[in-house]
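Exercise 7. Given the components listed, write out the predicted structure of the assembled complex. Treat all entries as one system.
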Amino acid sequence: MFEDLSFSLNGGSALVVTGANGIGKSSLLRTLAGLVPPSHGSIRLEGGAADTPPEEQAHYFGHQDAVKPALSVEENLQFWQNFTAPAPAPGFSVRSVTPLEALDTLGIGHTAQLPAAFLSAGQKRRLSLCRLLVTSRPVWLMDEPTSALDRRSETQLLELMNAHLAAGGLIVTATHSDLALADVLQLHLQAADAAALPVEDALP
Amino acid sequence: MTSWALALFLRDLRLSVRVGGSALVGVLFFLAVVTVIPFGVGPDLNLLSRIGPAILWIGALLATLLGLDRLFQADRDDGTLDLMLMAGRPLELVVLIKCLAHWVATGLPLVVAAPLLAVFLNLEPLAMGAVTLTLLVGTPALTLIGAIGAALTVSLRRGGLLLAVLVVPLAIPVLIFGVSAADAAIHDPVPFLTPFLILCALSLIAAVIGPVASAAALRFASD
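Answer.
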């Protein structure tokens, strides 16, 4: 997908990955998340627990919500809190919140007892976002975090992301929209030559 | 380790009870298989009681295969599997617990239904007990072996049939020793314990190989 890609990121800063469709933004995030093994090179997280691989200290917030329609909203979130191992790191101080607090923060507290099947796409997305709050992990990998969110939720998401950065966390996000984040580095992925672009992107 | 394991177990159990009543579907399928056999072989009660344990075992095998294809696929389709890989929990244990929950939801009802269906096949009380006991010990092995097939076919859209083709040959030893243990309880010359203990051993081996092989297949399938 890509080669000769190298970057480092300090605590408290975000990396925004931009680029055309199909250029490899999602692949980069999935590689960082340990879901796709890199063919060369390594991913290191300094300062975290030494015997824990980087992907187990990261949250992956991808296109899929991992929400089970048959469970209630609270059950969904409670499961992820119990199941996911928190990853404490020095220089990163955020405590995990309870599922109900997280739901209230994202403005879907009133749906806690409903089956998740009744949620709208945006609400499911917010429920999925609550997962990042109920287990404290220093690295957030977010693929198109603003998709399906309304303007108010988008502002809220930015507040959460800024709070995460202020607490010393890391964010790597792939996005097409401008995110008003505190401390941002840009990574623009570009095809080496135009012929390598997928067809729909090569058109003017 | 207990709290996350319990959370996963309860979640999987809840999901299989709430979604489509998988326990009931398995038992109904079991019932369908067992009831058509007497129509096929004719109303010879001696013959039925002789082949009864085998019919119950084959019915249980087919009913187990029925629900296995969704064991991991449902979690893969909505992205849950990706998050499970990143959760920092040993994937082999995750698979084992998912299998356990799946067995409680689909395998255990088969075991409970077996004595009732044994009546249809003219089994004596002793044979009934023996078949139920062998099913109780043997069906976990079917689920655990089936998990390997489910993990291998997780990325295939219509993997159910391929899963059956992959799993049935591996399940044959379980079938052989399950049926022979049940037969041994009815016909005296062979001791019951010999095949029964081998059946127990097969379940224990499956409890080791199944999760390790499934976890390897799931890691490979994640990209």
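Discussion: Chain B has one domain: 2-13+21-221. The longest helix of chain B spans residues 91-120.
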